[in-house]
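Input (structure):
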């Protein structure tokens, strides 16, 4: 049973129902249920779920590529085993999102960013691989919730913080 995160789940579902690209960021202290919240939200939705670990950028891209190609199989996935850049991997996912709504989760994002100086250290800084193309921005980055306290019914919630860091709309169906 999943309890105690109704408001966060409601926010995620509301964003999922909106048109266009959405990039909610869930962050907070360790062991307060962020991954569980996201896993519950993704249940029965087309999702690529990637959990980063401490490793070099080449290996991280290889593992991320595997997750994307396995989660979004297509003609191209039959011919390649890894993308040559992060931008290529995100563009591949964005192509799928043109035709159907997908969720792309990167759990433990700071591990991913530590191996690649082109990625922001904190996801609220924006997504640099999608921002460098000098195109107009259409949606702000949205920080869904910072989670505090211990898991369970007694959890105290802080106010939702939003950031005005722009994120390009790569595809209408990508959350």
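Output (sequence):
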């Amino acid at each position: 049973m999943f309890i105690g995160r109704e408001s966060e789940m409601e926010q995620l579902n509301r964003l999922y129902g909106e048109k266009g690209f959405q990039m909610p960021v869930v962050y907070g202290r360790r062991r307060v249920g962020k991954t569980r919240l996201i896993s519950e939200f993704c249940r029965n939705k087309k999702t690529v779920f990637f959990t980063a670990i401490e490793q070099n950028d080449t290996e991280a891209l290889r593992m991320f590529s595997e997750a994307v190609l396995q989660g979004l199989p297509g003609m191209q996935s039959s011919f390649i085993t890894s993308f040559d850049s992060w931008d290529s991997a995100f563009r591949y996912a964005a192509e799928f999102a043109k035709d159907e709504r997908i969720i792309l989760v990167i759990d433990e994002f700071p591990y991913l960013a530590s191996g690649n100086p082109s990625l922001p250290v904190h996801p609220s800084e924006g997504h640099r691989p999608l921002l460098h193309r000098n195109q107009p921005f259409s949606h702000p980055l949205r920080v869904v919730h910072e989670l505090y306290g211990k898991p369970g019914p007694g959890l105290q919630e802080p106010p939702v913080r939003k950031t005005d860091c722009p994120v390009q709309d790569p595809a209408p169906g990508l959350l």
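Notes: Residues 126-174 have pLDDT under 50 and may be disordered. Residues 145 and 160 are 5 Å apart (CA to CA).
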